[in-house]
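User: Can you predict the 3D structure for this chain?
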Amino acid sequence: MTVRNNWISHLEKIVLPVLTAAADDSLKIKMPIYKGRSEFQYLEAVGRIICGVGPWLNLSDDDTEEGHIRKKHKTLAIKAITNLVNPKALDYVDFGLGAQALVDAAYLTQGFLRAPNLWEGIGAEAQRNLIVEVKKTRRISPPKNNWLLFASMIEAFLLEYDKNYNRKRLYYGVKKFMNSYYIGDGMYGDGSTLSIDHYNSFVIHPMLVDIFNVMRKHGLKNADQFGKKEGVRYQRYVEIQERMISPEGAYPIQGRTLICRFGAFHVLAQASLLKLLSKSISASQVRCGLNAVLNRQMECLTNFDSNGFMTVGFNGIQDEMAETYVSSGSAYHCCTIFLPLGLNHQDSFWASENQKWTALKAFSGMEFEADHAFHERQVYKEFLMKIVFKLKRILK
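Assistant: Here is the predicted structure, written as structure tokens:
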């Protein structure tokens, strides 16, 4: 079995029970409820799945075995989303009933930004229904932490697909992170303070990158400036993430929301999809590292209940480490590791020869590159020196 086929097999195991039930308008009947926290778990599960597998579903149809599998999942996803936003459906979720909807709607809309073909596929009625629902989240005033980016993400989605976006709501979150919340060495605080967790990958970097791509596309003010600044910070965090993968395919279990499992590598997966890996990291070493992580955690049979739905835990059923906001839908954030499936099988990410990732090289006694912190002021200093040098040449 190829690595790509292995990933698709893991993807099917994770998403098929949710998408099948949701497509049949029976997710609310079949999906288990975790400690009574059911209000938005259905939106959360479907939204996180689309956020992660959207780029794969966005690929063109073909007559290969993978193509048939993908078409099946795309058909189920379209039906699932249609039911989710149809007020007459049993699985309908009213996005205006609570603050958590802001979070879950943001991931769903991020998925559609990554998969324009899927957006077209759901059809005009479901598009209208979804836009009505996501606009309800404007009632929610996000706290000054990563939630600000959920509001910005939704407005970026509306900018792309509705044109009727709230400029202030879009800019407020990204300005806070770009100008106030950056801590240094590629890392943002979750608000004004630093938290040692995976939220730079779960939320912050991936959303900033996707938001700025939309803003650039539409020629919005400061989009290019913000995008370039974030790009350098992002690449540093990509380097940090790649070095997190141990030789055995393990990684740090620090911070909250660890029930997202290997969704902790959202940034590394996104950088592979968007060709934003730093020059010191090859696509093949990322593929091999992420594959080791994926295989290691998917070996645990108690990651799934008897009906195939994901359990709450980091690796299996581990109730004690779950936060009070966790629901049965939360675990599906793990799907963000599958973003590179949006690259076709001929891409270098999939087709290149296997290569050891940094930690495996290091502990195997092989040569590996030294690691250096990223100091932003030095970058700006070098940039200014280049401008001065060019001006001197022009003046001569």
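The domain at 3-395 is CATH 1.50.10 (Glycosyltransferase). Residues 223-244 form the longest helix (22 residues).
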